[in-house]
Amino acid sequence: MNPDRPYAHLVTRLRETGLRPTRQRLALAKLLFEQGERHVTAESLHGEALAGSIRVSLATVYNTLHQFTQAGLLRQVVVDGARTYFDTNTRLHHHFFIEDDGELVDFPGEGVTVSGIPETPDGTEQTRVDVVVRVSRQSSAN
Amino acid sequence: MNPDRPYAHLVTRLRETGLRPTRQRLALAKLLFEQGERHVTAESLHGEALAGSIRVSLATVYNTLHQFTQAGLLRQVVVDGARTYFDTNTRLHHHFFIEDDGELVDFPGEGVTVSGIPETPDGTEQTRVDVVVRVSRQSSAN
DNA sequence: GTGTTTGCAAAGTGTTTGCAATTTA
DNA sequence: TAAATTGCAAACACTTTGCAAACAC
Questions:
Q1: H-helix or E-strand containing B109?
Q2: Is residue A10's beta carbon less than 7 angstroms from any atom in nucleic acid strand C?
Q3: Which of A42, A130, B25, B46 could connect to B132 by a Cys-Cys bridge, CB 3.0–4.6 Å?
Q4: Protein-contacted bases of chain C (C-beta within 7 A)
């Protein structure tokens, strides 16, 4: 939080994407990128910010997440319908989706092969293949 | 629409699942199951019903879609985050998702193999593997 | 008749937007 | 100071809910 040394690398990273390194964006970037790979929702990140005494509005969190996504710093993940997840891992990978609690877990995409996909519909080209492995917690009672 | 011959097989199908074959449920079942495999949203189905002069409320459409899903007559598909799709194809299959217009296209699951999935997270077991092949319309301008 | 189902309108989520006030360069 | 960004509150889209009236058996 020292304003004299405000995470130079994050400042640079934001500048490179054409986003002004504002207090809010820096704070969110710090939460997002300074603790390994993670999955957040707008609300979870907003909660973290507030918990860390970072004053930022939910609207700004949404804006920032979308701007970061557009800049290639985040990847948007759709699994659950209800909420939108953002993933700080932008490399090729897929997801386990733990149905019981809506948690996401990455797994690397390098070793994964999907074979047997038919031709894409007329006039379309393949953008990406997403694999979601849905899992549920084993209950010994089952 | 002849009340004297109200689609006996649909009536039976509903009865088997423990759902009373009400006018609304029969009408929706007819729209859903009498014209091949399809993907609907609550709103699209509601629109169809109204267009076909079937008086049914949106709330009932939602209820019915969920009841049918629970009964195994439909499958819920998550791809787009904004809306929930229901698929009358309950067999093993995957989806093309046409990003430009949010349209879904099925492809059969039999020929598809996903290899290289690591072990599921601790204490969980695999429920299902969903493959979404995202495609976009080719523009000659691109 | 009795329990189920429906429809309405209201409430609930998660997300987006308009705009004045603030901040950045 | 000019342009970008923020925060608020209101608006949104989609979905769920509570409850009285209508319906199925």
A1: none
A2: no
A3: A130
A4: 4-10, 13-18, 23-25
pTM recorded for the entire structure: 0.83
Q: How far apart are CA B76 and CA B87, in angstroms?
A: 6
Q: How far is A16 from chain B (nearest CA, A)?
A: 25
Nearest to B67 by CA among B14, B27, B104, B31: B14
- Sequence-ordered list of residues with C-beta below 8 angstroms from that of A51, at least 6 positions apart, any chain: none
Q: For A96-111, write each residue's pLDDT tens digit.
A: 988 777 788 999 999 9
Nearest-angstrom CA–CA distance, A68 and A45: 13
At B43-73, the pLDDT tens digits run 999 999 999 999 999 999 999 999 999 999 9
Name the β-bridge partners of A14. none
Contacts of B138 in chain A (CB under 8 A): 123-125
Q: Which helix (H) or strand (E) holds B68?
A: helix B58-70
- Of A17, A51, A3, the residue nearest A31 (C-alpha): A51
